[in-house]
Design a protein that fits this description.
mainly alpha, 6 helices
């Protein structure tokens, strides 16, 4: 989940520019990436793929709707950071479950793997819209165990 260092971040953009980038990041290309990932899930019923797709689309839509409802640049930047943090936390929790299941039974549930992968794509879509400092600070926070 790398940060595109050559692109403008939210600190360099106007409200309308950032809002447009948010819409672009969370719509068409993300949908295509989900399709590519879910098509690789061999031997599963289409209904299982659809359930994962529906789940991650609902998560994305919650973040997107919140961001598009903002009225100022500061609200949008704050919402973007919060949406990123929420998706990063969800991805972290899914990966924790995957690791636990792997340790317990040797193999995690496939739907869980695909949900985690698709949520990671939301994280990747949002990450370039934040400053490197915000991304690194959140990664450090999430890596530290709470005392």
């Amino acid at each position: 989940m790398g940060h595109n260092t050559g692109e403008l971040t939210s600190t360099d953009l106007t409200f309308d520019e950032l809002r447009q980038r948010v819409q672009t990041a969370l719509c068409d290309s993300l949908e295509e990436e989900w399709e590519e990932v879910l098509e690789q899930w061999a031997g599963t019923a289409p209904s299982e793929r659809q359930a994962v797709r529906r789940h991650v689309a609902e998560l994305r839509d919650q973040v997107l709707d919140s961001l598009l409802a903002t009225e100022t640049l500061e609200e949008l930047k704050r919402g973007l950071a919060l949406g990123y943090a929420e998706m990063k936390c969800r991805w972290t929790m899914l990966n924790t479950r995957i690791q636990h299941q792997t340790a317990q039974s040797g193999r995690p549930d496939e739907p869980l793997i695909y949900r985690a992968t698709c949520v990671s794509l939301i994280v990747q879509a949002l990450e370039p819209l934040l400053s490197r400092e915000h991304v690194e600070d959140l990664a450090s926070f999430l890596a530290e165990p709470l005392a």
